[in-house]
Amino acid sequence: MKAIAITPGKKHSARLVEAEKPKVSDIKDGRGALVQVLQAGACGTDREINDAEYGTAPESSDYLILGHENFGRVIEVGENVRELTPGDLVVATVRRPCGTSIYDLIGQQDFTTDNTYYEHGISRLHGFWAEFYSEDEDFLIKIPPAIADVAVLLEPLSIIEKGFKQARDIQTRLDIWHPKTAAVLGTGNVGLLTILALRLRGFEVHGFGLDKPEGYLNAELCKAIGATYDSTLELSVTDSVEKYGEYDLIFEATGYSPIVFEAMQTLAENGILILSSVTGGDRHTDGVPSDLINQEFVLGNRAMVGTVNANREHFELGVKDLALAEAMYPGWLSRMITHRVKGLEGFAEVFDILENGSANKAIKTIFEVSDI
Ligand code: BGC
């Protein structure tokens, strides 16, 4: 079968390879499903792996098949598969419990404390930029046909759902928490999905991005669902408090770490800040008013949490939000998929769009591997 692979440690090594087609019997105890990939998403992580910033091949291979955002159709199942039948639409989760930490052992591998982790298309497991994959049904999320057109967005959404779940769990420290206002920093695909998920929960939402709003699709998408959009060139997050008040919840998705310190200063009492950017650089931030930030966090009982990866329950929450979004804001999610590349052969174009995202006005780029 065709797949897109990289050689770890080698810059810009992405290429089309002919890989062995997986089989249902590759998965033990008859619990496997063979899945035909219909669509696969691309994100900054894929670009960083192709830039050789990280990425590890499986032990038995000298290359890594890329891709972790996925959507496919089951074409064959093993004899002990209970919940799936051929024809079902599915999305696979990303991380597997192959480590030794207690969290791997209890199926909460998204909270692993191991430094070595196993993620499809990222670390030690082949990914989904391929024609097929086989997987244990435990890691496959069933997708209602009504949301087939947008299900490729489920994986990025699952990270956000995990962030919200953690925020809710942490806030059970308060007997009453009725958050009303939220700021979302960054309006790329994660930021926009966060804005959507918060609007579905009834929040007053304020999105912030770098670009000026005029003619900017991301800004238009914010407004289309009743959120505001401001360019931080015109209104800083710190100054936005004068206009919108302090925020009960802030979600950071810019990839620019200094903004975290601004966010910390705009959080309301008892509020919570969720961080989602994987910032691989070595930036140091001068001029941070650390005494003030620390004091406000202490006196205001403020909280901050990171969110990475997601487990089955977060994907399942995401399925419900995708369905609700299609009902409340029909067509909005599809507008986020700005670039569709036919066939895996178009991988060079996908990387070009990832490199020059804003010049290409890209929000989400996907491969259409096979017809839905
Ligand atoms: C993926 C996560 C993964 C993280 C770190 C993200 O792009 O969506 O599933 O845990 O990268 O590798």
Record field, number of beta strands: 19
The major sheet is characterized as: 7 strands, mixed
- Span between termini: 18 Å
The total number of structural domains is 2
CATH topology of the largest domain: Quinone Oxidoreductase, Chain A, domain 1
Radius of gyration: 21 Å
Strand percentage lies at: 25-35%
- The CATH architecture category of the largest domain equals Alpha-Beta Complex
The level 1 CATH classification of the largest domain is: Alpha Beta
Helical/strand content category: alpha/beta
Name the poorly predicted regions. none
N to C succession of SSEs: EEEHEEEEHEEEEHEHEHEHEHEHEHHEHE
CATH superfamily of the largest domain: Medium-chain alcohol dehydrogenases, catalytic domain
What is the number of helical segments per DSSP (H or I, 4+ residues)?
11
Helix content: 25-40%
Q: Which cofactors or ions or other ligands sit in this model?
A: beta-D-glucopyranose
Mean pLDDT level: 97
Structural shape = globular
Structure write-up:
It is a single chain. The chain folds into two domains: 2-143 and 336-368, Medium-chain alcohol dehydrogenases, catalytic domain (Quinone Oxidoreductase, Chain A, domain 1); 158-306, 3-Layer(aba) Sandwich (Rossmann fold). With 372 residues, it is α/β, with parallel strands linked by helices. Strand 12 (181-185), helix 4 and strand 13 (204-209) form a beta-alpha-beta unit. The strands form four sheets. Strands 3, 5, 6, 10, 11, 18 and 19 form a seven-stranded mixed sheet that branches. A six-stranded parallel sheet has the order 14-13-12-15-16-17, with helices on both faces. It has helices at residues 44-50, 102-105, 154-171, 189-200, 217-224, 237-244, 259-264, 290-299, 312-328, 332-336, 347-355, and strands at 2-6, 15-18, 32-42, 64-65, 69-77, 89-92, 95-96, 118-120, 124-125, 132-136, 140-143, 181-185, 204-209, 228-231, 247-252, 267-275, 303-306, 337-342, 364-368. The protein has eleven helices and 19 strands. The structure holds beta-D-glucopyranose. Residues 43, 45, 68, 94-95, 119, 122, 155, 159, 278, 308-309 line the site of beta-D-glucopyranose.
